Amino acid sequence: MTASALTRPGERDRLSTKISELDWRLIGLLCLVATVGAAMLYSIAGGSWQPWAAKHVIRFAALLTVMLALAMVHPKWWFRAAYPLYGLLLVLVLMIEFTPLGYTAGGAKNWLNLGFMRIQPAEFIKLGLVLALARWYHNHTAQEARWSWKLLIPAGMIGVPFLLVAKQPDLGSAMVIGLTGAVVMFVAGLSWRVIAVGAAAAVAVIPPFVMFGMHDYQRNRVLTFLSPESDPSGTGYNIIQSKIALGSGGLLGKGYGLGSQSQLEFLPERHTDFIFSTVAEEFGFVGSFTVLACYIAIILIALRIASLAHSHFGRIAAAGMTAFFALFVLINGAMVMGMAPVVGVPMPLLSYGGSSMMTVMFGFGLVLATRVHRYAELPKGHGLF
Q1: Of 54, 71, 282, 336, which has fewest CB within 10 angstroms of its CB?
Q2: Which residues contact residue 115 at a Cβ distance below 8 angstroms, ignoring those fewer than 6 apart?
């Protein structure tokens, strides 16, 4: 479909035209990864759809429908909703800390108990942050994005949720929020000098933050990943078992449903944080590499979609959504291989979990909307900021 066809009066708003403009390669790869996730959850449960696989499939099917519906939404509506959505999600994060609705699970007060359901606002604030940053950069010049005192505004938009989520404490989500924001600023054209200074400052701040700014169990996780064998039955247990699962799979794996570390429950959190270790154990290097290749293909296709958008907002928003997906994959992959501390970041669409899946599918709804409406132009106007 050419640009002229998409811009022809009466053509661009037809549902059939929009559906034809969807990137079905991307949709197919997302479905493939989610299917692998369901198969692994079925295996982990001893060949049963309960308690994880059935819910995983139902959630994905429902969210796939939502994602396709969001792909039909014109970017101007995403643009208008950016600041209000960011503000609403920030309020939800604050409600965890300052209202009785905050719910503690797994040692972190990062859930909001609404009575009929529990949600993790820290997952969704990533979406709001990307949209808000994309709107801010859309309304500012390349020079202002490169270096200006006005950069204090996007820095504050990143810093506030980062600090609130880190205080819960949810180090994994805080890390993804901070890194996603940093990637968006980089994509928008931040000066290399500022990046270098920021990287140096981060390196300088990490040691005192680890020693004085973390809870004891978080500090132990960070220090233990460097030498998990120093506490094999305590904080090093997760990483050691994950490495055993990864290594025991060999080239082709032990076979579907035959992974001893997961089936005998030596592997902790095998349905969430360490599900990729189960893939490696049962399908070996070939299986795990294939899954990673699917993730890489998803990321490359999404970045290509971002690069083709005519509006600055569309380019940055799609790139930002791709960034937090890529960070999920990178951090979880490094975590299960013992190259990063265990921080509770799931492998997207592979791990069991409703909030993380919802965030990913909403994000790709925006990416697909950017593809469908890639010729759309959005007016510049400073609006709120």
Answers
A1: 54
A2: none
CA atoms 143, 147, 152, 155: torsion sign: positive
- Kindly report the three-state secondary structure assignment for every residue of 152-199: HHHHHHHHHHHHHHHHCCCHHHHHHHHHHHHHHHHHCCCCHHHHHHHH
**What stretches of the chain adopt beta strand conformation (E)?**
102-105, 108-113, 118-119
CA distance 69 to 326: 23
Q: Which residues contact 46 (CB under 8 A, 6 or more apart)?
A: 257, 263
Q: Distance between CA atoms of 320 and 135, rounded to whole angstroms?
A: 12
- Radius of gyration of the chain measured on its C-alpha atoms: 21
Give the predicted TM-score (pTM) of the model: 0.89
End-to-end CA distance of the chain: 37
Return the H-helix or E-strand segment holding 123: helix 121-138
Rounded Cα gap, residues 255 and 290, in angstroms: 15
Which residue has 């020693």 as its token pair? 211
Q: How far apart are CA 208 and CA 369, in angstroms?
A: 43
Question: Which residue bears the tokens 């959630």?
Answer: 59
In this structure, what DSSP letter does residue 345 have?
P
What is the DSSP code (8-state) at residue 347?
P
Over residues 267-320, the pLDDT tens digits come to: 877 888 889 999 999 999 999 999 999 999 999 999 999 999 989 999 999 999
